[in-house]
Amino acid sequence: MLGQPVSPGSRGAGSSGSRLMAQAGNIGPGAEGRRGAGAAPGRASWRWALALLWLAATWCWPRASGSAPSRRWPVPYKRFSFRPEPDPYCQAKYTFCPTGSPVPVMKGDDVIDVFRLQAPVWEFKYGDLLGHLKIMHDAIGFRSKLTGKNYTMEWYELFQLGNCTFPHMRPEMNAPFWCNQGAACFFEGIDDTHWKENGTLVLVATISGNMFNKMAKWVKQDNETGIYYETWTVQASPAKGAETWFESYDCSKFVLRTYKKLAELGAEFKKIETNYTRIFLYSGEPTYLGNETSVFGPSGNKSLALAIKRFYYPFKPHLSTKEFLLSLLQIFDAVIIHRQFYLFYNFEYWFLPMKYPFIKITYEEIPLPNRNKTFPGL
Question: Alpha helix (H) ranges present in the chain?
């Protein structure tokens, strides 16, 4: 089995973890697909993310520009040799992968149907509300024709989306504190009603038992080395072919990587349209600022450290209505008026000189892969 996630969940907008996949020990749930939002002691409220998206989507401002030293773009997502135990401070409101189970070993001559699964984020709490905005969670379903059993596999946040997107400002710590892990979740059964009612449950390929077993080994490795969630895709502009500075790492990317692996193993995918939710930030060329030690350590840059903490402070959870409205104004001022955003990526900080249209949610078509064809950037 890939891991021992603790609890079930309500899948979120794009990620997941599993008993089979996550070698993370007792962890909490995610907030992507239909999973929940918000977490306990270390929970950054998801409402801030939505508020920020709303602000950017409804206001228009003149264009801006920015520059930084030449680097390799997009910045490669950092992988790790093992998955660390989560800090006890990080607690999820909705348990991660509550019904997770080991990935079965299929008989080599079995025939396995592969299903594309998609439903609105946080559907368990808000129904199809976010589906109208095309904010969707992605997963994969399997059905063994020999046993008749169904299975669901997905990838999402251990501590909800807010915690993966924004840090906690703990009084006893000088640096922002992040509760950010994502993992794969595998469990028996497919909730047909959930996926069909407001989303998608469609057959995309048929594979052999041998191919499934090889995929399962790859998923374990992918899950153990890709440990953290990344909400944003950062680009220079919405224009086709625009420079991409940073790629997201979420539920949809896990599905795309899995499809790619199955194609490499020989799977033939149907020719159907498949769309995925992406959340973009638009900025000029990012500037590298440093890691936690170089920015917040004893010899760090005190003015920069203060600026980063001030930027993240309005995103803190558990606010009164008055505090919430004031925080919205602060977020608007920083991102839209002053065009500033501090991104935490690969456990390092970057400055983004924000550009119009600042933030955008898209629902883009990404074709199913061709057999044995490799696609970069997944």
Answer: 46-58, 123-126, 161-165, 192-198, 209-225, 251-264, 292-296, 302-312, 321-332
Residues serving a catalytic function are 137, 251
pLDDT value at 334 more than 70: yes
Residue bearing tokens 């006890």 = 88
Amino acid at 316: K
Residue 344 burial (C-beta neighbours within 10 Å; 0-12, 13-18, 19+):
buried
For the full predicted model, state whether its pTM sits above 0.90.
no
Under DSSP, the state recorded for 107 is: P
Beta-ladder partners of 39: 92
Confidence of residue 130 (pLDDT cuts 50, 70, 90): confident
Judged by phi (left if over 0) then psi (alpha if -120 to 50, else beta), residue 75 lies in beta
Structure tokens that stand for 132 in this block: 């109208």
Residue environment code for 217-237, b if the CB has 16+ CB neighbours within 10 A, otherwise e: eebbebbbebbbbbbbbbbbb
Neighbours of 93 (CB within 10 A): 18
CA atoms of 165 and 249, how far apart (whole Å): 12
Distance between alpha carbon 106 and the CA centroid of its chain, in Å?
29
Task: For strands 150-157 and 136-144, give the pairing.
Answer: antiparallel
Return d(Cα 362, Cα 26) in angstroms, integer: 34
Beta carbons within 8 Å of 71's beta carbon, 6+ residues apart: 288
Residue 114 token pair: 């592969």
What is the rounded average pLDDT of the residues 12-20? 36
Token readout for 95 is 């348990």
Query: CA–CA separation, 312 vs 175, rounded Å?
Result: 11
- Distance (Å, rounded) from C-alpha 72 to C-alpha 66? 17
Residues 6+ apart with CB under 8 A from 228: 164, 180, 181, 182, 249, 347
